[in-house]
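Hi! If you just cloned this repository, the fastest way to understand the data is to look at a raw example. We've pasted two of them here, unedited. The first protein comes first, obviously.
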Amino acid sequence: MKKAFVLVLLASAAWAETAATIPLPKPHTTGGMPLMQALNARKSGREFSPEKLSPQALSNLLWAAYGVNRPDGRRTAPSASNRQTIDVYVALAEGVYLYNAKEHRLDLVVPGDLRAAAGLQPFVAQAPLNLVYVADYAKMAELPDATRVLYSAAETGSIGQNVYLYCASEGFSTVIRAMVNRDALAKALHLRPEQKITLSQTVGYPSRTPAEKKGAN
């Protein structure tokens, strides 16, 4: 029992460090709330607890959002002609990571806490996680601008809804947002000119009411 407890502490300490690469646990791809119940529970929330998501919860969330769900590399969200133009940036207190869906891991982009840069609302900096959706227009270079905007918007919306349904199933709070200083955030993330920020999405545990906090004492 003591050995297991020590292993949990070591895993938590390793997670807290800003590592160049964070392997994610294998996602749980079964169970959860039935679809119709999740749709009924789906909603936006703007009050978040600062409590961090566990590595397993983050793994499940990212797989649900845009993970690989077939041997040919296709994803949980659709994309036009399977171009897979959206990159999912993961803003944590430790740093901003890029979700590598093929390897199911996080690759460090920028160390340090940039959560506040992921949106203009006050709750963005407090919530444990912000997802930033970035369209890579280089993957649609031959298409007109209007088509690239349409395709990337549709793909972003599908990913965002996956996140909403996962959060509804697991009791997390989330809200997808357009209020982002895109120029400042793109500079902070060292994006190429062909990379365009579409939307951002905040995820975390819902903050408890005073009555709920009192009941937990």
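Ok, and the second one:
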Amino acid sequence: MLKMARIGILAALAALILAFGLTNAEAQRGQAGQNGQAPGQRQGGMQRGAFTPDRMWEFTGPRIKENLGVSDDEWSVIEPLVKDVSTKQMATRMRGMGGMGGMRGGARRPGGPGAEADDNTPKEIKELRDVLDNENATSAEIKTKLAAYRALVKKQQDELKAAQEKLVKVLTPRQEAALVLSGMLE
């Protein structure tokens, strides 16, 4: 039971680490020249942005494998499916992080209103943020961008559900239960 709880904790921790890395990237970029480091580097020489979903998987993947109690052969089948679910869950969870920044007068992004969002941010999110930053945006413009955003959310949720269903097909009931308790499956 404790092992299953650790999977959930690891998933939450991984999401927080990724969120922290994304939200602090600009702040660290600004600090780099102030502490003698080359721009774009963290202490120890690690390149800013080096903590990616793939690097995170290096830490969480082996723990999930251990907690599921699978052999290497079983893991070769299960791992890509678990990773796909994990990636899709992270995308759905991270989608809204920082989205309330528009309520602070556009201060959520460096440069204020109109500043570019992360290159990996879906177009629908960028456009909704931009229309919210525009004090002259009409209700019709906001409704159009909100509808596009909601369509993105629905698409992401459908993709996550399909990935979860695909994963369940290769799991034993015990493995499925462990992933349900961890929050990876419903």
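That's it. A detail worth noticing about the second one: The CA atoms of residues 100 and 108 lie 8 Å apart.
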